[in-house]
Write a structure and sequence with these properties.
The protein is of the alpha/beta class. The chain has three domains: 87 residues, Translation factors (Elongation Factor Tu (Ef-tu), domain 3); 111 residues, Rossmann fold (3-Layer(aba) Sandwich), CATH 3.40.50; 62 residues, no CATH class. Helix content is 32%, strand content 31%. The strands form three sheets. The protein has a seven-stranded mixed beta sheet, sandwiched between helices. The chain has a six-stranded antiparallel beta sheet with strand order 1-2-5-4-3-6. The longest helix is centred in the last third of the chain and has 21 residues. The structure holds FE2/S2 (inorganic) cluster. The site of FE2/S2 (inorganic) cluster has 12 residues, from loops.
Length: 282
Amino acid sequence: MNEIVKREALSKDVFRMEVETPLIARKRKAGQFVILRVGEEGERFPLTIADANAEGGTITLIFQAVGKSTWALSRLKEGDEIHDLVGPLGMPTHVERFGTVVCIGGGIGVAPLHPIVKAMKEGGNRVISIIGSRTKDLLILEEEIRGLSDELLVSTDDGTYGFHGFVTQVLEQVIERGEKIALVVAIGPVPMMRAVCKVTKQHDLPTTVSLNPIMVDGTGMCGGCRVTVGGETRFTCVDGPEFDGHRVDFEELTKRLSVYKKQEAKAMEKYEHECALGDKMK
Ligand code: FES
C-alpha cells in the first residue's frame, strides 16, 4: 500500500510522485488533498492531489522539498512506501458552467491548480490560465496546463521566461483587454493570493483562493488549520481548502504560518546532519 510507482524531479527541489492508493484514486475530486507521514515518527502534512488515475489506482502528488518532512519524502525512491496516507480530505472545488474562468497559479501553487483547471474545463468553462514563478527553472506543469486551457499566459519575476513581472500584472492585462470574467481562482504563496484579491476586488470579480495552513489531524478537531473568513473561524481541512478570497484574513494567516519557523529550521538542521552521517556510513 502507498507504494511510489513513479518519481521524477520537475524542477530544482520540486518532485512529482505517483502513489498507488486505489480507494483514494477512485474517490478523490478536484481540490481535495491527502495528509501523509513519511515514517512512523514523522509529522503529518497535507498535499493536494494534483491528479489521479482511477483505473490504475494511483494519485499524483507534486511537492517542493522545503523542510524536513518534504525532504524526507523527496528521498524516497520508486518501490518505497509512504508510511501512511489519509484522504481524500477537504471539500471538492465547486464547479459549474460559470463562463470564463481565470485560473492563476504561482510557484508550487501551479500543482494544486492543475486539477482545478481540468475540472473547470470539463465543466464547460472557457479557461484562461496564468502561471508564474520567480525564474524559468522553477516553472512547473507548463505543458500540462497549456493542454487543458483555452489560453495560457506565463510570467517570471526575473523575466527569464514569458512576461517579465508578476501574475497580477498579467491578470490586469487580461482584465484591461475587456474579458468578461466570471470567476478567478488563485493558488500560490500567501502574498500572491493576497495581491490577486486586491486586483479582483477593485474590479468586483469573484475570487476563490486555496489555503494551505499548518494541518495536523485533517478532521476539524485539532484547530491547527483555523483561518478567519468573513470574521468567522473556519477550519481549512473540513470547510476548505477553498474560500472566498475577498473575505480571508491574510494578515492572520501569514502570522500563523510563521509560528513554527524556528522549530522547522531546527528540525531541518538535525535532519541534514543525520542524512550526512547516514551517507558517510554507506
Ligand atoms: S487540521 Fe486539525 S482542525 Fe484542521
